[in-house]
Amino acid sequence: MRLRRRDLLPLLLLAAPAAAQDRLAPVTPDTPEGAALVERLRGGGLVLFFRHADTRGEPCDSSYRIGDRAGQRNISPEGVAQSRRIGERLAALGIPVARPVLAGPVFRARDTAEQAFGAADVLVTDSLLADDYAGGRLAWVLAEHRRLFSEPVPRGANRVLVGHRTPAIMVAGQAVGGRAFPEGAALVIEPAGGGFRVLGVLDLAPLPGGGFHACG
Length: 216
Fold this sequence. Notes:
alpha/beta, 7 strands, seven-stranded mixed β-sheet
């Protein structure tokens, strides 16, 4: 049975840290904060968790079935171009990416990864399912997000994941909630001591007026 958003509230509250968190704001590489994140990423050892690219103007999810493209909210034509720019920007900035890149099976995540990195370098995994598609596996999906955020990453490369906003909020807390994590942006995550911390939100290919769809 699919969980409704209101049914997720108790889980969100449990996932949020007890102490109040300052909400993060997305930054671009041409800001001092963004440049600092890029410098850290050049050394590797971090996790980049991308939210899928732009979906504005696309029909809302309706079937909630994996493999049913017509029943899903897909990336827009602008989202396709944004995805390609993400891959180009990572290369231009000298940010090393471990292969394969992992992506969720909902098409907006999978398509973003394949447009950015090439289909041959993308491994599709249920570990990065959207919450609305997880059903009775939601607890497992969240545990998989925590694992992928927390497992050490060798120096010289960064683990790249492409998924969805709500599971990230449920695992990382309200610091990445609200408008902190727009479509196409990435959480920069440092695995640390068996857990993780979010260093910032990096927006490599922002779109004017973009970031958040209008689906109900």
